[in-house]
Amino acid sequence: MSDQAFHVRQKTRDGARALSGLALFVAGLCALPMLAVLIAALSGGTETVQHLMETVLGGYTRTTLALVVLVALGTFMIGVGAAWLVTMTRFPGARFFEIALVLPLAFPAYVLAYAYTHVLDHPGIVQTVLRDVTGWGPRDYWFPDIRSLGGAAAMLVLVLYPYVYLLARAAFIQQSGTTFLAARALGSNPWAAFFKVSLPLARPAIAGGVLLAVMETIADFGTVAYFGVQTFATGIYTSWFSMFDRVAAAQLALCLLSFALLLAMLERLQRGDAKYHDPARQAQTVPAIVLSGWRGMAAALLCAVPVLFGAILPIIVLFSMGIGSEQNLLSARYLGFIQNSATLASVAAVVTVLAAISVGFFQRMRAGRTAQGAAYVARLGYAVPGGVIAVGLMVPFAAFDNALDAWMRATFDVSTGLLITGSIWLLVIAYMVRFLAAALGAYEGGQAMVHVNMDSASRSLGQGPVGTLRRVHLPILAPSLLTALLIVFVDVMKELPATLIMRPFNFDTLAVQAYRLASDERLEGAAVPSLVIVAMGLLPVILICRQVGRNR
Fold first, then answer.
1. pTM score above 0.70
2. DSSP state of 382
3. Which residues pair with 357 in a beta bridge?
4. What domains sit in the chain, N to C, each tagged with a CATH number?
5. Looking at 75-79, 248-252, 284-288, 440-444, which range is the least confident one?
6. HEC string for 94-129
7. Are 104 and 306 in contact (CB under 8 A)?
């Protein structure tokens, strides 16, 4: 073996070790919160579990399950119905609604909660006008309570149905027209053919979208906390901060973690088992159903309702609330909130994308059980609510900080304080664990365009794994990496429970400020940071809308 060949092989071996070690380290960080929650919950004894079962556990379980069922049904009906209308029919404004239906994805559910409470609550404009017109008193009529389980479900449905819509739309577009035409030839009308053929073929994609919406529902804290709906997410926060019961918080987190992992497993099973393959598939699209007259107007109205109530009306309400508030967006205080939010989101986005690159490239470079296991563990964070991740990271790192401080006091008479627990970096790790799956999905989607022959050519030219990644993969993957950066940036801007629990002292973000003002019933003030969060969220949504317009 020549010296040059030996040098190339050594460089390849060293680069592979470095990338493998980094990918396994990232997977270990993703597994740490779940292991810590499990250990902390099991070490708490049975007394706390029994107390929780006798007091709040049953209520948390019933409320969380009811919320999950309502959101699953709502997102399924709106998402699938809208996707079917814009892809399989032609009606006035169909192309506009095909893109506009994605817009509510930019809104956090708690922002909609603030806007609709301002409009629909007892002092709001709707009930005020109703009383002025009818002359009724406060007890002379019944009006739906927005601050309820149903109200929380409605807010979540309005912002989460785009998950189902996007996946169902893609599934309907990719379907062959052969089976649909066969159903029509056998006597089925268009709607019967939809229920018998198109809907069953799209079931895996629809189920995946619904399960994504459900996982976001169990992770939600801002909406249910503001509406006073007692779920596992609010119970974890209350146990941690109000009752100072870390064991109870860990055991509640374990319950929620078990439910989230069950959903993740169901999503993987349905995606892996429910497959459809048509070896005779023709490039024939499903013929569009032309809706005219009142049918066309009804279809346009059905598509307009979620856009109106999920995006347009909330923006109008938030603007009117913000103008009437005393919050100065250009003040030093608000500029500090914006800087804190942008710093957290930027650092977390970069760290998360780098982690996704390490895991994704390791999976490509060393295809095997170890690499697949690391990628699977890295994706689990998306199924784990932010509050669970926060508890799972706070418990071990707080124990480490306390042990280090005690040792330094005993040895050098110096107090180190909370080196890790009270820093921004632990919060960044929580964001990385939470949103790594989104970045990894974007990275793997772009990586599919890099042919394996490119890797072979790079190795034949003397490049090791690091050189191949830097000189071949990253230039090709630049658009996918930019998309991943934007997605994680916006997700971090909207994340509330992990930020509330783990943020350093006197380090508030726009989401925390909006939550604090809304908790004090200062909804006009909460509209200002909420508008900034929505503006930030529109960036990736606009990119998604452009992609939706192209892939037609």
1. yes
2. G
3. none
4. 27-56+326-521 (1.10.3720.10), 58-229+295-324 (1.10.3720.10)
5. 284-288
6. HHHHHHHCCHHHHCCHHHHHHHHHHHHCCCCHHHHH
7. yes
